[in-house]
Structures
1.
Amino acid sequence: MTYEVTIEPTGEILEVEEGQNILDAALRSGVYLPHACGHGLCATCKVDVLDGEVDFGDASPFALMDMERDEGKCLACTATPMSDLVIEADIEFDEDARSIPVRDFVAEVVRIEEFSPRIRGIFLKTEGDTIDFQAGQYINLYVPGVERPRAFSIASTPDDSDPLELNVCLVPGGEATTWLHESLEVGAVLKFSGPYGRFYTRVSKPEPFLFLAGGSGLSSPKSMILELLGAGERRPITLVYGARDQQDLYYRELFEGLDERHENFRYVPVLSAEPDDSDWEGMRGFVHDAASEIFDGRFEGMKAYMCGPPPMIDACINTLMKGRLFERDMYMENFFDQSSAQDRVKSPLFKTI
Amino acid sequence: MANKLNMRDRYKLMTRLGWETSYQPMDKVFPYDSYEGIKIKDWDAWEDPFRMTMDAYWKYQGEKEKKLYAIMDAFSQSNGHLNISDARYVNALKLFLQGVSPLEYQAHRGFARQGRHFTGEGARVACQMQSLDELRHVQTQIHGMSHFNKYFDGFHDFAHWHDRVWYLSVPKSFFDDANTAGPFEFMVAIGFSFEYVLTNLLFVPFMSGAAYNGDMSTVSFGFSAQSDEARHMTLGLEAIRFMLEQHEDNVPIVQRWIDKWLWRGYKVLSLVSAMMDYMLPESPMSWKEAWEVYFEQNGGALFNDLARYGITVPDYAEICTKEKEHLSHQVWGILYNHTAAAAIHTWMPDDAKMNWLSEKYPDTFDKYYRPRFEYWRDQAENGNRYYSQTLPLVCQTCQIPMGFTEPDDPTQISYRVSEYNGDKYHFCSDPCKAIFDFEPEKYCHAWMPPQQIFQGNCGGEGLPAVLEHYKFNLGADNMDYVGSPDEANWNLWKGLNGSVSGDVKAS
C-alpha cells in the first residue's frame, strides 16, 4: 500500500510506502526538506498538513505539542501518512523546476552506436507519447534479468527525444551495463519510467554556466547545452569534459562544431591517460585541474553543473570551493533510489554535496 | 483574492524587519562587526537556521514551559529525590547549577548583544531568539534544582559562588573571554565550538546521567532544552558557513578562533569528565567513550566537510586523544584534594567503581590511578583524609590548577611559562600558552583565584576566612561525602546503615 503525498509550494508528488515517514520518502525522491535530528526531537522538520490524515509517530511532546497536533502540524521525520496527503513545507519555490509526473514507458531499441570502446549509445523509440522531461533529468531503465532498474541520464533534448538517447558506460562487473553492452540488440523492447531528478539548468538565474563532466556523464550536459544554445542562450557556457584518451572522447566533432559556431560556448576536452607521444594538442590531466587552469582558480559568480564518476565530482567540489563557489551554486546529478537516503552518510554541513 | 502566503514568504515578512539607516551611516549604527577583520559582502546570503517567527516562538515556548513545570511539580510532590540512585549523584547537579547554569545566563547576555550588533537582520533575529532560549534554560534549571536545594547542601548560593569560587572560575573565565570578544568571535566560540561541536559532551553526560540515576526532573528539562538545542547547533553551523563563504580572508581568522575555542571548551569540559566517571553512581558511558563518539567520530565528519573550505582539525587534537585516557582521573584527583574549598563533595570510588574504571581505561587506570586512589582511600578510612591546605598554581588561560601531565609522560606535570611585560605567566599546556601568547593583553589581567586570595581580596587570610567570604556552610557544603550531612540524611531517609536519628540538614 502506498500513499501519494503532495508537497506545497512546489507541487511535487511523492509515493510513500506504508509505514515510511514523509522525510525519508522526500529525501529518497530528491526533495530536500529541512531536517536535523531525524528522530522527532528537534522540530526542524515541522510541516503543515493541509489535507489528509497522519500518524504523528514518535514525535517528542516538546518538539510537537498537543496544540500543534490539533492545528495539523506534524514532524516529517516521524509522521507516516494514513491517507493521501497534501503538506506544506518550508522549501524554496524554484521557478526553473517543472513538476512532471513520473510515468511508465515501453520502448523499442531502434539504433545502437558504439561511441567508444566503453561507451555505447542506445536509441529508444517509445510506444505512444514520448516522455516529457527537463534537460538533465534521468530515467530508470529495466534491464532484463536485473532485479532493480538502473538510472540513465537522457542525452537527447526535450524537443528532440524521438528516439530517446542514452549513453551507457560499461562498468566492469556491472550486471546491467554488461548486458546492455554485450546482449542488447536493435529491436529489443525495454521498459523504463521517468523523468527523475533535480538536475536541470537554472536558466532564470543570471549566472553563466559551467559544465564539468567525465565519462558517460556527458549525457546530461549534452542535452542541457544543446537545449540552451537551441533557445538562443547568450551567456557564457563552458564544458570541460574529461576522458581517458582520444578513443574515449566521444561527441568531439559535435562540441567542436558548437564551439566554432557559438561565440559564447567553449569546449574544453581534457585527457587523463593519453599516451605522452600522441598527436593530442589539447589539455591533459583531470577535469578539476583543467577547470582551475582555464578560470585561474576563481569560480565566483558562476553556476556549476557536474556529472561523472564520484571521485571526479568530489575533486571538482573541492576545486570549486577553493575558488569561492559554494553549495548554493553547485548542481550535480544524484540518482536517488530506495537505499540511497539511508546509505548516504549525513553531512552536518551540506545538503546535497 | 489574496492567496495565503506560503511558509517561506510568510517567514520572510515576519523576520526581515531591518532597513538601511539614513540619519546615520550603517557602519556607525553597527560599529562592532568589522573590527575583527571578518569581511561580509552580502548579508542577504545569510540563511536562517531557525525558521521560526516570534509569534510562534512565544506560543510554543509557553506551551513547552507549562508541560515542563507540570513534570517538575509532580517530581517535587512525589519526593522524586528519594528515587535517585544515591545521594552522591546530587553532586553532579550541584556542579551543573554552579558551573553550567550561570553559563546559560551568560549565553543569554552574549546572544542578546550579538542580536544588537550584527548588521544583518537575519543574524540578529536568530541571536535574539537564542538569547531568549538561554534565559529560559537558566530559569528552568534553577527552578528544577530548587527542589534539590530543599534537601541537599551545595545549591543555596550558586550565583554568588560562580563569581568567586576557584574551580568555578574555569567556566566563568571561559564565558567572560567569549563575551568580551567581538560578535563574530563570539559566534565561533559559543555558537559553533560550544553549542555545535562540544554540546553533546556536556548535555549527554548530564541528561543520560540523570536518566541512569533516576532523576526524571532533570531528564525532562533535557528533553525540553533539546528541542531548542538543534536550532542552536544549526545557528552555530550557519554562522561558520556564512563567514567562510563570504570572503577568503575570513578563513584564517575563523581557523584561529576554532583552534582557540575548541581548546577552551575542551578544558571546561574536563570538569564534566570527572563528573561522568566519578560522580555518577550509574554511568551510561565513560568520558573516553563519549569523547570518541562525540568528538572523534561526529567532529571528524564535520571537519571532513570543513576541509572543503580550507579549515583543518586543530593541531592539538592529538593531545586530546592522548589525554582522554587520563583527563577524568586527574581532574577528580584535583577536586578530591581541594574539596575543603569546594561546594561539592568528593570521595574515593568503591571497588565496583574502580573495576568499572579499569574496564573502561584498561591502559591507564590500573597503572597510574588505582594505586594512588587506593592509597588515598586507605588513608581516609584510617582517619587521615587529606585536604590540601595550600593554594594551587592555576593556568593563566583555562584557570584549572596545574595538575595535568605531559601528553607523552603521565608521570610528569606539564608546565609552560611565558613572559609578558616583565611578569611570568604559567600554563598547563601548549595550546593554553599559545592562546595567551597571541593575545597576552587579554589574559594578563585575568582574575586568578589564588592570586586574589593572596592579595587579600577574598575575605582575608587563611581558608576559613576565604570560605566565609564564599558563603559556604562549613562542614556541610564542602569536604568528603563520607561524614557529610548529605550522607547522613540520605541514609536516614532510605533507612540505610549508619543512619542517625533526627534531621541533620545543616543549613
2.
Amino acid sequence: MAKSFLSIERLTQKYPDGNGGQFTVFENASFGIEKGEFVCILGHSGCGKSTIMNILAGLSEPTSGVVKMDGFQISGPSLDRGVVFQNYSLLPWLSALKNVTFGVAARFPDWTKQQVEDHSIAFLAKVGLSEDAIHRKPSQLSGGMRQRVSIARAFANEPKLLLLDEPFGALDALTRGTIQEELLKVWRGTNQTVFMITHDIDEAILLADRILLMTNGPLARVAESVEITIPRPRVRTEIVESPNYYAIRNHLVQFLGKRSAELAGQPSEAGGTHTPQTIRIDKTSVQTSDQPILQAVKT
Amino acid sequence: MGLLSENKRAALWSVILLVVGLLVWELSISNQQVAAGELTEYELLTGAGTAKAGVPPPSEVLVKAWQELSNPFYDAGPNDKGIGIQIGYSIYRVLTGYFLAAIIAIPLGFLIGMSSVAYKALNPFIQVLRPISPLAWMPLALFIIQDSEASAIFVIFICSIWPMLINTAFGVAGVREDWVNVARTHELSPLKTAFTVILPAAAPTIVTGMRISIGIAWLVIVAAEMLVGGTGIGYYVWNEWNNLDLTSVIFSILMIGIVGMLLDAAFGLLQRRVAFVE
C-alpha cells in the first residue's frame, strides 16, 4: 500500500484509570488521508475523536504510535496544521480582521503589513464577512459570524492539513446549514486537505469525500471508511435526490445506532493493527442482480 | 423630576447632601461658640475661648483652601511649604515605590502564573509577607537604608507589591487554554506568546491589581510621612495638628481624598482601555 499524505500508524492512547490500571481509549488505530481529501470522523462521545484531533494538531502526545505527514513524523503544533476549535478560539480583545491577520502574519513573516491585511480581507470576504463586520470584536458578532472568522483564519493560513474540531457544534441548525455551504465554497477553490470531527451524519455526508466510523470506547477503533459517492458540487437540497444519499445515510445510522456498540471493546490481535474496512455504496453504477449493493473491500 | 435622567437626579442628590451636610456642620459650630460665655482665668490661659481651639466651620476651611490653592507652590522654609509642594513630594514617593514594585511584581507574577512549581515554591513566602503592615517594616528600613526618604519609598514598594504580584499570577494562570492553544498552533515563540496572547488576556486582572496597589500606596504614604517627617502631605497633616491648626488639618484631609480619587480614576481609565468582553 502506498503511503498516504497523512498516515496515522498504530496510534494508541491510554490513561491511568485511577485504580493503578490503564484505560485504553483506542489502540493501534491506523488510517490514511490523501492530499486534497475532505475526511470526516463520526463516532459517539468518548471514543477518542477529540484525542485523535489533538494528537494531529500536536497539542497532545499519544501513548504510542506515530503520525506522519508528507513522510515526516509530526511533533508538536505547527503552522502546517491549522485548527478550527469548536468554541471559535478567537482572541476577544482583537477585531475579527486582527484575529485573521494575527495568524497570517505568523504564517508569512516576510509579508508586508499591507499584504497580510489584503490576504486576510480576501479570506474574510470568502466566508461572507463584509467590510463593516470585520472591524468588530468577537463579542459583537453572532456565533455563526465568529465561527466564520475562525474558518477564515484557518484557510487564510493555507496549512497543509486543516483540522476542524466539531466546528458547528455550538451553532443552531439554520446557521449551521449556511456555514457548511460557505465552508464547501471556500474549500472547493483550494485543494485543501481537511480532517473534521462531527456528530452530525447529514453534515458529514454533505461535506466529506470519506467518512471514518469509530466504534464506541474504550478500546475504540476506526472500523470503517465509507466513501461518499455523491458527485460534487453538492448542495443540501439536491444531494437528498441522489440515489446514494439514503443508502449511505442508512448505513451510517445503522453503524452508529447498533454496530458501533457491537464492535466495541475488542482488543486487537497480537501485533495486529486496526485498519478500517473500506465501504463503497454506489447505487448509480450498473448492477447485475446478484451483485451485492454493499461492497466490502479489504485493503 | 421624572424628566431628568438617572445621572442628573443622582448629581442633584449629591449637591443636596453636600449643602445640607455643610449647613449642619456650620450651624453646630456657631452654636458651640455662642456657649463660650464667661471664662475662668485657667480657661483663658489654655485658650478655650479662642476660635482656633474648636473644630472650624466649613466656611473657614473654604477660605483656607482658597488661600492655599491660590499659591500652592510657595516655599518659606522647612515648616512652611505650599500644599502643592507637599502633595508633590508624596506623589513622587508613591510613584517611585509603586513603579519599582511593578517592575518586580509583574514579571514575577508572570513566572508564578505560568509555572506551578514557582507558584508552590514562592507561595509560603508571599502568604507570610503579605499580611505584614507596611509600617512594621519602617524601623528595619530606617536602620538598614539609613535614609528616611528612601525608607518611605521602600514602605510604599513593599505595600504595593502584593496586590500586583498576586493579581498578575492569578490573571496569567487563568488565561483560557484555548487562547494558549491558538498561540501554540501558530508556532509563536514563548516571548511572543507572552506579549501577544497572555499579556492582553491577563491585562484586566493585572490592572485591577495595579489599581488596588495604588490605592493602598496612597493610604500608606500618609502614615509613613507622619513617621519620617520632613515633607509630604502626611507630614503636613501631622505638623498642622502640632500647630493646632485644625482648619489646615481638615483642608489637607480633603486634599488627600481628592488626590487619591484622581489616582484611582487614572487607573480606572486604564482598566477600561484593557477590558474586553468574551
